[in-house]
Amino acid sequence: MDNIKILVVDDDTSVRYTLQEICRLGGWQVVEAANGQDGLARLKEEKLDLVILDYHMPEMDGLEAVQQIRTWDSQVPILVLTVDERQSIADAFLAAGASDFALKPIKAPDLIARIRVHLNITKNNRQKNHEAYVVKGISSATLRLIQEFLENSPHPVTIEEITSGVNLAYQTVHRYLNYLVEEGRVVVECDYGRVGRPKNRYRLA
């Protein structure tokens, strides 16, 4: 993955600096933008391999920026930075075309791992010439990643186990599992255990 360029979009200078340092630690070049409009302009000016953008920004917030980016590029991975863990927010972003989330404050190893996952997903997707999305908010490549994890699991697994195994955000995995359950491709089993609340475990149908 030589000469990978990552677009970092955030109105906070210190956050952009931190993200730039993390990306450089991962061996990637960084292009910066202070808001969604500038980020979209940079994306149109040069080939960029991944976008990291903040949710709350002036002029054009993260959600609108994702929508605008997707009208220009249907495959570039978009990681959204947010402190908001609500599933409703995640669903709105994923429906708009976001690939995944990174929760603030950002830990360098976690973000580097997340970036590598999405660069690999996109690379494999382009090599196999697959469609980027199955339905709105559901990427075929990410769907395959989760399904393959379930195929390789000897027993039903929790969302937390899947999240850790595939290096995707909890909210992203939750949405994809719901889609697979609705499609009848995944079954939910309730594990009551001995202590605490029962946990949902997932397996392929």
Description of the structure:
The protein is globular and about 50 Å long. It is 48% helix and 20% strand. The model has no long low-confidence stretch (mean pLDDT 90). Strand 8 and strand 9 form a beta hairpin. By secondary structure, it is an alpha/beta fold. It is built from 8 helices and 9 strands. The chain has a single domain (5-204), classed as Rossmann fold (3-Layer(aba) Sandwich). The strands form 3 sheets. Strands 2-1-3-4-5 form a 5-stranded parallel β-sheet, with helices on both faces. A two-stranded antiparallel ribbon has the order 6-7. Strands 8-9 form a two-stranded antiparallel ribbon.
Quick overview:
By secondary structure, this protein is α/β, with parallel strands linked by helices. It has helices at residues 13-25, 36-45, 62-72, 87-96, 108-128, 140-151, 159-166, 170-182, and strands spanning 5-9, 29-33, 50-54, 78-82, 100-103, 133-135, 138-139, 186-191, 199-204.
